[in-house]
Design a protein that fits this description.
mainly alpha; disordered C terminus; single chain; about 475 residues
């Protein structure tokens, strides 16, 4: 089998639809993107009508000053998580599912990580697609399923061709979206006193600071955990920090706080119509494009998780473009018939399962460093380590404990609680030497994977 896999590694890759986008390998340094291209990708994640709605929801129950504090708390938490995990992804050129093979979970554990991430992200792809279809249907007419199909097809077509086309699309959509939103908001607020809106009391029932921070930080925590899907295309660690921080500033302090002002103005969280109704058909088109630009990352991240899962569990190398088509069709059809909205509670449950993954990754990569040495030794050659741990049972136990804390402990921010629990437990047990990998897997075990392996210099899992 070893000789067969080595022959496969030298054979030309079978042509398939779209781009595989280094789904099971490091992103080469010469294939990474410059600062401005990546910055637009990050800023595009801030261009969401739902973020205005979140700001308005918080504004209905908080003063402007308290809302500013809540957004600050949420932004700081998210930026710390994004930078710690995203920097690891940038250094290694690996997405989260592959990174976890050598950082905390081992080969088989990474399959569980991939499954949870894939199901969660494709589920939210369908849910957001449903919300979009219903919103556009209510605004301009037509059956919601038609708009679900239109959005689903557009997003799937974009994601099939991978990161390069997603980056190009961001260059088009991001300036259009924020230009349109700025015009709509300025037009709406032009006849009102900004000072009066800032000093006005909350028009609705008071929202505690912890609840608001939970909505802000918890709502995007899954995106923070899978940030390596994007940062593996970065060239420098400083770029990761500046770009992600810029996205936080735009998303929380500008979009979110404008939403707070709009909530004070209309005394309701229903503010999306302000942007859409003042922009006409052009606004609908731009919102469709911006929805695609945000939701594409759900589908993209899910496709990477499925590719890793199938390779580990079934020994099959699936092309990411083909996986994207299958996931996109499934998510689109389920959203069109209205099924996805019934799964939001289940998806929220998965959302509590994902933050501990980030806690374990950060703890292993930056503090314990028990399993990452093979990555260090192969980084310059841009190859994958020839071996990885097979199982890390203690990591799975920590994952379970952290999930229970996030799910059943009522205080604080659930997503942050589970992440912090996983981080602290892994650090403590890892530094005590209680986290040990069991078994060693080689890339030759993945017989259908045309990945380039480095020679074995350090056994995977060696301290």
């Amino acid at each position: 089998m070893a000789s067969e896999s080595r022959e496969a590694s030298t054979a030309p890759e079978t042509k398939s639809i779209g781009s595989d986008d280094y789904s099971l390998s490091r992103v080469p340094r010469d294939k990474r993107f410059g600062f401005w291209s990546m910055l637009l990708q990050w800023l595009a994640q801030s261009g969401s009508i739902s973020q205005f709605t979140l700001g308005a929801t918080i504004g209905v129950g908080m003063t402007f000053g308290d809302a500013f504090l809540a957004f600050t708390l949420g932004a700081v938490i998210l930026e710390i998580v994004i930078f710690a995990i995203g920097l690891a992804g940038m250094r290694e050129g690996l997405a989260t599912p592959m990174l976890t093979r050598w950082v905390g979970f081992g080969r088989n554990g990474s399959a569980l990580v991939s499954f949870v991430i894939a199901v969660s992200l494709v589920g939210w792809f369908g849910v957001q697609n449903t919300i979009f279809g219903n919103s556009v249907s209510a605004l301009v007419g037509g059956p919601s399923w038609m708009w679900c199909v239109a959005a689903g097809v557009a997003i799937t077509a974009l994601v099939i061709f991978g990161f390069r086309w997603m980056a190009l699309f961001a260059k088009i959509v991001t300036p259009l979206f924020f230009g349109m939103v700025a015009w709509s908001v300025i037009t709406t607020l032009n006849d009102h006193s900004l000072g009066d809106l800032i000093s006005s009391p909350p028009p609705g029932e008071a929202i505690p600071l912890a609840v608001a921070a939970t909505a802000i930080a918890g709502g995007y925590m899954t995106g923070a955990i899978v940030s390596p899907e994007m940062t593996r295309y970065n060239r420098k660690g400083s770029h990761v920090f500046v770009q992600s921080a810029s996205s936080m500033i735009l998303s929380e302090y500008i979009v979110g706080m404008v939403g707070v002002l709009l909530g004070h103005l209309v005394k309701s969280s229903e503010v999306s119509h302000i942007v859409l109704s003042t922009s006409g058909a052009f606004g609908v088109i731009v919102v469709l494009m911006s929805t695609a630009k945000i939701n594409d990352w759900n589908l993209y991240g899910s496709s990477l998780g499925v590719v890793n899962f199938f390779q580990v569990v079934f020994g099959r190398r699936l092309h990411r473009g083909v996986v994207t088509v299958a996931l996109g069709v499934a998510g689109t059809l389920l959203s069109a018939v209205g099924i996805m909205t019934h799964f939001t509670e289940f998806l929220s449950l998965l959302g509590v399962m994902i933050p501990p993954i980030g806690g374990i990754v950060v703890a292993e990569y930056w503090v314990v460093k028990r399993m990452r040495r093979p990555l260090d030794e192969t980084r310059e050659a841009e190859t994958l380590p020839a071996t990885s741990p097979t199982w890390v049972p203690m990591s799975l136990a920590i994952w379970l404990v952290a999930f229970c804390v996030g799910k059943f402990y009522d205080g604080g921010i659930p997503a942050l609680n589970s992440l912090a629990t996983a981080f602290l437990l892994y650090c403590a047990l890892g530094l005590l030497g209680w986290i040990r990998p069991y078994g060693t897997s080689t890339l030759d075990d993945d017989a259908h994977t045309p990945a380039t392996a480095a020679p074995v210099t350090t056994p995977a899992g060696a301290a």
